Amino acid sequence: MMRRRRGPGLLATAVVVGGAAHVGAKSAQKGAQAQAQEQAQNQQLAELEAQNAALAQQMAAQQAPPPAPAPAAPAGGGIDMEKLKQLGELHTAGILSDEEFAAAKAKLLG
């Protein structure tokens, strides 16, 4: 008489191993997809941060104070400040009297 084996047969073992391999492959595939998606998100985040930094620099440059304006022409329709200064120096040095200084200043100021 022939004896029958007890327990799972070879076919049942193959099914279990095949199912486990399939589940493992799917799990690995999902893990790879998740990793690729995470890398893509990290890359997008880095690009957005770079854009944000560039915009911040542009805004800072736009908000910089404008350069100081050039000195305006002397007020009073053309008063020669240099000559007036020279007159003051001559008066201070004692070369011009008070009357001479007043007359020259009145002449310059019009």
- Count structural domains: 2
Largest sheet: none
- Total DSSP helices: 4
The Rg value, from CA coordinates, equals: 47 Å
Determine the structural class based on helices, strands and strand pairing. mainly alpha
Number of β-strand runs: 0
What is the terminal-to-terminal distance?
144 Å
Q: Provide mean pLDDT, rounded.
A: 79
Give the H and E element order: HHHH
Task: Give the uncertain stretches in residue-range form.
Answer: none
Percentage of helical residues? Answer: over 70%
Would you kindly provide a written description of the structure presented here, covering whatever features stand out?
With 110 residues, the chain is mainly α. It folds into two domains: 11-64; 78-109, no CATH class. The protein has four helices and no strands. The radius of gyration is 47 Å and the shape is rod-shaped. It starts with 9 loop residues before the first helix and ends with a helix.
Describe the SSE topology:
Elements: H1 10-62, H2 75-78, H3 81-93, H4 98-109
